[in-house]
Write a structure and sequence with these properties.
Blueprint: E1 6-10, H1 15-26, E2 33-38, H2 50-56, E3 61-65, H3 71-81, E4 85-88, H4 95-100, H5 103-124, E5 131-137, H6 161-180, E6 184-189, E7 191-193, H7 202-212, E8 216-219, E9 225-230, H8 231-244, E10 250-253, E11 258-260, H9 261-275, E12 287-290, H10 305-311, H11 319-332, H12 334-340, H13 343-351
The chain binds nicotinamide-adenine-dinucleotide (NAD).
Length: about 350
C-alpha cells in the first residue's frame, strides 16, 4: 500500500473533490496533510468544507486559491507544500456549458492539466514514491446502444466539447507516464450524485424543484440512460486506486445503477414526497418534457469489474438508499443551497432552465 505525506487535491471545492477530502480525513485512516488547490469558479464553494476547515484547517488541511492555468502558481504550490501526491479533479464539468462556451473547457481541462503535469515532472523529477491521479469520465467512451458496456480498453469516442477535452487530458496523462515515466493512475467514472452537488445537474435540480413546486424539466423522451454512482463510493474508489492501484493503469468506477432519466425523476418525486409527508405521486405532475440537448448521448454503462476484482472495492449503497440520503441532505442544508444559488451562479441558472446531467 502506498503512503503519502501531503496530498494536493485540485478542484477540492467542487462536488466530488470536497466529498473526497472529507473521505480522506474522516474515513480513510490517512494521517498526513491535504492541500485544496482551487480557482473557485461558479462551481467551487468553500462552504462545502467548513467542517473540515474547522477541525483540520491550518494543521492538516490547507486551501490555496490558484488557477491550474497559471503554471507558475501551480509550481509554487507544489514547491511550498512539497506534495507527494496530486489528485486532479479541477475541471469545467458541465456538458451544457461546454456546448454554449467550449473555450473555458479547452483552457482548464487541457491546458490546466498540461500545466499540472509539467509542474509535477519538473518538481518530482525521477521520483518513484509520488503519484499523479487523474479523474475522468465515462463520457470519453462515447455513446452506447441498448446493450454493451464500457471497459477500460474501450476505444475513446467523445461527442461533446466537454468529453473531448477530458479525453485529451486523459491522453496527456498517459503520455507523461509512457514518455517521462511519471507515476500516474487514471479513473473514468459514471454520473455521480450525493451531498454538495450543484443544482444545475439532474438530481439536485429535480430535488430542489420538487421542494419548490417548480417544473421538472426532462430532456427529450426521458429515455437517455445513465449509470449513477454515489459520490462517497466514488471517493472510496479513488482512495483505493491511489493507495493500491497499479501505476500506469486506468480503472472504471461505476454504481452499477443504470436508469433512464425519467425513472430517476419519478423516483426522486416519490422519495421527496415521502420525506415531505406528501402523497406518493404529489410531485409527478411537475414533470415537463423539454427540447433535447444537441448530440445527447443515448446510453452510458460502465463495467467496473477490474476495480472490484483487483482492488477489492465495492459500492456501499443501493441507488434508492443513496437517493434517499441525498434528498435528506438537501432538506437539511438550506444555507448551502442559498450560497450556491447566489451571485453569478444564480443569474446563470435562471437564464438556462432545463434538465441537466
Ligand atoms: N460530476 C460527475 O458526475 C462526474 C462524472 C465523471 C467525471 N467527473 C470529473 O470529476 C471531476 C470533478 O467533477 P465535479 O462534478 O466535482 O466538478 P465541479 O464542477 O463540481 O467542481 C470543479 C471544481 O474545479 C474548480 N476549478 C475549475 N476550473 C479551475 C481552474 N482553472 N483552476 C483550479 N480550479 C478550478 C472549480 O472551482 C470547482 O471547485 C472533473 O474532472 C469531472 O470531469 C465528474
Amino acid at each position: 500500500m502506498r503512503e503519502f505525506k501531503t496530498i494536493l487535491v485540485t478542484g477540492g471545492a467542487g462536488f466530488i473533490g470536497s466529498n473526497f477530502i472529507r473521505h480522506v480525513f474522516r474515513k480513510s485512516g490517512y494521517k498526513g496533510k491535504a492541500v485544496n488547490l482551487d480557482k473557485l469558479t461558479y462551481a467551487g464553494n468553500l462552504l462545502s468544507l467548513t467542517d473540515i476547515e474547522k477541525e483540520y484547517g491550518g494543521t492538516r488541511y490547507f486551501f490555496e486559491h490558484v488557477d491550474i492555468c497559471d503554471k507558475a502558481g501551480v509550481m509554487k504550490t507544489l514547491k511550498d507544500t512539497g506534495a507527494d501526491c496530486i489528485v486532479h479533479f479541477a475541471a469545467e464539468s458541465h456538458v451544457d456549458r461546454s456546448i454554449t462556451g467550449p473555450g473555458e473547457f479547452i483552457q482548464t481541462n487541457l491546458i490546466g492539466t498540461f500545466n499540472l503535469l509539467e509542474a509535477a515532472r519538473e518538481f518530482w523529477k525521477d521520483r518513484k514514491d509520488v503519484l499523479f491521479h487523474h479523474i475522468s469520465t465515462d463520457e470519453v467512451y462515447g455513446s452506447l446502444g441498448d446493450i454493451g458496456y464500457f471497459f477500460e480498453d474501450t476505444a475513446y469516442d467523445p461527442r461533446s466539447p466537454y468529453s473531448a477535452s477530458k479525453a485529451g487530458s486523459d491522453h496527456l496523462v498517459m503520455a507523461y507516464h509512457h514518455t517521462y515515466g511519471l507515476p500516474v493512475t487514471l479513473s473514468n467514472c459514471s454520473n455521480n450524485y450525493g451531498p454538495y452537488h450543484f443544482p444545475e445537474k439532474l438530481i439536485p435540480l429535480m430535488i430542489l424543484n420538487c421542494f419548490e413546486g417548480k417544473p421538472l424539466p426532462v430532456y427529450g423522451d426521458g429515455m437517455n440512460v445513465r449509470d449513477w454512482l454515489y459520490v462517497e463510493d466514488h471517493a472510496s474508489a479513488i482512495w483505493k486506486i491511489i493507495t493500491d492501484g497499479k501505476i500506469g493503469d486506468k480503472y472504471n468506477v461505476g454504481g452499477e445503477n443504470e436508469r433512464p432519466n425519467l425513472e430517476v425523476v419519478n423516483l426522486i418525486c416519490e422519495i421527496a414526497a415521502g420525506e415531505n409527508g406528501k402523497p406518493k405521486d404529489e410531485y409527478k405532475s411537475l414533470i415537463t418534457y423539454v427540447k433535447d440537448r444537441p448530440g445527447h448521448d443515448r446510453r452510458y454503462a460502465i463495467n467496473c469489474d477490474k476495480l472490484k476484482k483487483e482492488l477489492g472495492w465495492k459500492q456501499s449503497v443501493t441507488f434508492e438508499d443513496g437517493l434517499r440520503q441525498t434528498v435528506r441532505w438537501y432538506l437539511n442544508n438550506p444555507e448551502w443551497i442559498e450560497s450556491v444559488r447566489s451571485g453569478e451562479y444564480r443569474k446563470w441558472i435562471e437564464k438556462n432552465y432545463a434538465a441537466r446531467d
